[in-house]
């Protein structure tokens, strides 16, 4: 019995010691002496100086947390920005402590609460009058601490000499200016802002903590409503901007005809069951302006043989230019040609060398995320998804996580208008919608709720800015969303917003894990069977409607079956409602197909 009491007493000794230390801490606060406390890694220094009539004045409060020091001082006051453009110095007036939080009362009605918590994290809550829009706080790094930060990011990653890593997360409209050693903390409209410090396990953990601390909650229904509003506006815009008498789009005069507009308009017309009327108008436009159309619109408008052969001749130049655009330092177009990513893989069926594929593998394996812009990172992520879709095991060893952790997550910035991808201090709408599409695909693949949440937020934030005819602003400063610049036409982002729309795309032909060819099409195929003896493709489209296919990698065959009949090919196949033509030199079969039934099939027997 005595031994039990002794053990219980010894267990209480550390608790009593900590309680005594905490009392000393509180007494030190009121006495104004320098305080050093290791409570949850937090150290607070206060200094008072004699004032008039013997009253002490609080001169400085410094908060140290894992090598990061924030200073609130009369000599180096905080600076408050007001909504009228003025600047006010903010100095500490009083410092108090309790068992829950430490509080600094400052001039101009500013209050700073320091809230440590179990779990190695710290919150600094700023409260200011509503007229204040921003507070500038000096900081310093100590103890050999190194910092990693990109321009205008909400997160500062701190890397001590040991294995631990900490971060400072700011409100979305804030900035960390590392060279000047200041934090520009943006305040909400009610004058509040929160800084969060903690110990993450990686880049995604940092972002997840910061994002969820914003209490963002975007539902799938909200996303669906935002997309519907955007697409409705875009479709009405395409209809109103098309001038049938001149067969041109009513853009600025210098814009002329853009094939991406034709593609988006045709794809949306299929979804809306207006395709026959729309495609007839577009076909007449193509006849009037043949030079404006390329391989891209073949699945809708035909002219398969001429433009496809020209495309094959130009493919090397296209791939060269595209891969050059992915090199660090080069501008990234985000979508030079739809599904050019797949063609990097498929190109080996055009000659068997696979040299482009080797270059892609080399590019991905040697990428340095630190040198990539958000646009280039998103382009590479799109490339990775397309190549993996075509040949799943091909790039399993490619490290894509740094593209998310080092580039994409830190570029996500919360503004008064919502969540966006920011680059150079500006929210970029194209990049935001591209990121939404990537995170949606990757989140579904991984079953990752955070990626899906952020994807929804990006979609709603960007699409709610829709204007007349489906246009969107190109960008705006993150600290002033009212200053919008540029125009994004809806066709430029339609593939990001409607990834399941019947857009032209590559469908790989696989025998086991081996790639044997591909189909350039607007269809989805319920069934494709490839063997040594035959190629069987089943596909669906509305009855009476016409589409076109380029089927590459078809070996010389003994029989072609369409409508369950033996079919002969002819170079004038496109003048008929249905037809086909085969060029053995590049093993390509061109097909124009009018559906008698919703589901049809083509059978090639070798």
Rg over CA atoms, rounded to whole Å, is: 31 Å
Q: Which parts are unreliable, with pLDDT below 50 for 5 consecutive residues or more? A: 1-33
> Strand tally, please?
33
Mean pLDDT, to the nearest integer, reads 79
Quick overview of this protein structure:
With 606 residues, the chain is an alpha+beta fold. Helices cover 34% and strands 30% of the residues. The chain starts with a helix and ends with a strand.
Describe this structure in words.
- 34% of the residues lie in helices and 30% in strands.
- The longest helix has 30 residues, at 2-31.
- The chain is elongated and about 110 Å long.
- A hairpin with a 4-residue loop joins strand 6 (92-97) and strand 7.
- It has 606 residues and is an alpha+beta fold.
- The protein starts with a helix and ends with a strand.
- Strands 1, 2, 3, 4, 5, 10, 14 and 15 form an eight-stranded antiparallel β-sheet that branches. Strands 6-7-8-9-16-13-12-11 form an eight-stranded antiparallel β-sheet.
- It has 14 helices and 33 strands.
């Amino acid at each position: 019995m005595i031994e039990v009491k002794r053990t219980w007493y010894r267990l209480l000794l550390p608790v009593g010691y900590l309680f005594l230390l905490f009392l000393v801490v509180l007494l030190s606060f009121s006495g104004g002496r320098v305080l050093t406390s290791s409570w949850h890694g937090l150290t607070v220094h206060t200094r008072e100086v004699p004032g008039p009539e013997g009253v002490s004045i609080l001169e400085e409060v410094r908060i140290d947390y894992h090598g990061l020091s924030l200073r609130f001082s009369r000599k180096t006051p905080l600076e408050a920005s007001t909504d009228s453009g003025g600047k006010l110095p903010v100095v500490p007036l009083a410092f108090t402590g309790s068992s829950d939080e430490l509080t600094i009362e400052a001039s101009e009605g500013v209050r700073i609460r320091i809230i440590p918590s179990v779990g190695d994290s710290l919150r600094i809550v700023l409260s200011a009058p509503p007229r204040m829009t921003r507070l500038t706080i000096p900081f310093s790094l100590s103890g050999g601490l190194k910092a990693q930060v990109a321009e205008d990011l909400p997160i500062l990653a701190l890397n001590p000499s040991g294995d631990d890593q900490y971060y400072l997360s700011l409100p979305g409209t804030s900035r960390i200016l590392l060279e000047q050693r200041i934090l520009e903390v943006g305040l909400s409209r009610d004058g509040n802002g929160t800084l969060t410090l903690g110990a993450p396990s990686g880049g995604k953990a940092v972002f997840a903590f910061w994002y969820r601390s914003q209490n963002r909650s975007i539902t799938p229904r909200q996303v669906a409503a935002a997309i519907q509003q955007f697409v409705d506006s875009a479709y009405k815009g395409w209809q109103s901007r098309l001038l049938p008498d001149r067969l041109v789009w009513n853009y600025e005069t210098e814009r002329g005809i853009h094939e991406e507009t034709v593609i988006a308009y045709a794809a949306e017309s299929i979804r809306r069951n207006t395709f026959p009327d729309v495609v007839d108008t577009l076909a007449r436009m193509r006849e009037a302006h043949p030079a404006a159309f390329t391989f891209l619109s073949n699945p809708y408008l035909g002219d398969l043989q001429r433009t496809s052969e020209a495309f094959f001749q130009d493919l090397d130049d296209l791939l060269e230019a595209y891969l050059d655009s992915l090199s660090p330092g080069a501008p990234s177009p985000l979508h030079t040609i739809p599904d050019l990513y797949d063609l990097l893989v498929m190109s080996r069926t055009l000659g068997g060398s696979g040299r482009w594929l080797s270059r892609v593998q080399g590019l991905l394996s040697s990428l340095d995320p630190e040198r990539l812009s958000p646009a280039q990172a998103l382009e590479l992520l799109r490339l990775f998804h397309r190549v993996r879709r075509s040949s799943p095991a091909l790039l399993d060893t490619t490290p894509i996580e740094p593209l998310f952790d080092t580039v994409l997550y830190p570029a996500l910035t919360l503004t008064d208008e919502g969540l966006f991808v920011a680059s150079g201090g500006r929210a970029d709408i194209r990049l935001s919608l591209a990121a939404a599409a990537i995170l949606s695909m990757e989140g579904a693949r991984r079953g990752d709720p955070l990626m899906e949440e952020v994807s929804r937020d990006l979609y709603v934030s960007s699409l709610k800015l829709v204007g007349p005819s489906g246009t969107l602003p190109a960008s705006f400063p993150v600290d002033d969303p009212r200053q919008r610049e540029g125009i994004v036409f809806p066709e430029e982002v339609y593939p990001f917003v409607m990834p399941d729309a019947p857009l032209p795309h590559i469908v790989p032909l696989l025998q086991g894990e081996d790639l044997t060819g591909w189909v350039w099409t607007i269809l989805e195929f319920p069934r494709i069977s490839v063997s040594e003896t035959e190629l069987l493709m089943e596909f669906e489209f509305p009855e009476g409607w016409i589409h076109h296919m380029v089927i590459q990698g078809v070996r010389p065959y003994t029989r072609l079956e369409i409508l369950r009949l033996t079919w002969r090919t002819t170079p004038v196949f496109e003048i008929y409602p249905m037809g086909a033509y085969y060029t053995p030199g590049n093993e390509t079969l061109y097909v124009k197909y009018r559906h008698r039934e919703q589901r049809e099939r083509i059978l090639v027997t070798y």
